[in-house]
Amino acid sequence: MIKKLLIAVLTGAAACATLAGQPCPERPADKSEQARNLVLATKVRDQLEQSGATVAYVARAGIDLSQYGLVYSHIGLAWRDHPRGRWFTYHLLNTCGTRESELVDHSLEDFFNVELFTQDALVAVPSPELQLKLLKTFFSPLAPTLHERSYSMISYPFSVMYQSSNQWVLEVSAAAIAPENAINNRLQAQNWLKANGYAPFKAKVSGLLVVGSQLFSPHVRFDDHSEPEASSNVYLESTVDSVLDFMQRFDPALKRYPVRN
Quick one: which of 166, 161, 162 has its CA closest to 151? Predict the structure, then answer.
């Protein structure tokens, strides 16, 4: 009976890998995928060049979010004139198989060199004014200050206990558009986001999946979420779309360019 229950938990988790059931949220690409991913990265680079941007958001589809009506799972910021090379990305990554994360600089090729669910990417280009603010903030001492190493893929957007990749991008972006010196730590960033109407994504998560993730997925944690979320099995989280939707409220000129291989 116990064996059957464990199989059911694992099966449920695997069927809903959006949140749990695997040791890493996004795994390195194997050799058969690398060539396709390189083509996708090249198309993204071409779109960035055509945009004339200095910095832009880039996103990839590393996991299956189709049941939620979402495509993109992970977002970072791309800088045209990065000291390490043209169009390097800056983003937060979960250290595979652990509960920790790190901030990394990756070429576009490395950013997309993971096991992608689909060959879909997104380039989101802010207005020139916002680009300057993002550049100033993301590549300042404040950006690593807003990083929390304790990682959860489904971290609660208004708690400083854990942090997801998309949540870090959101909090640094908030610091870029907030009044000067209004945000100096994560709590201030979250309070500012809440006061200014940030709307996290609402994900319906089965109780079985919650149990499965707690048993088998170190990168998925639920203990930072509220009791009403646990009671309803509807959990708030930061997604690529919710980040960009919020930024577009402050920057209507932000343009999104889907890229598909």
Answer: 162
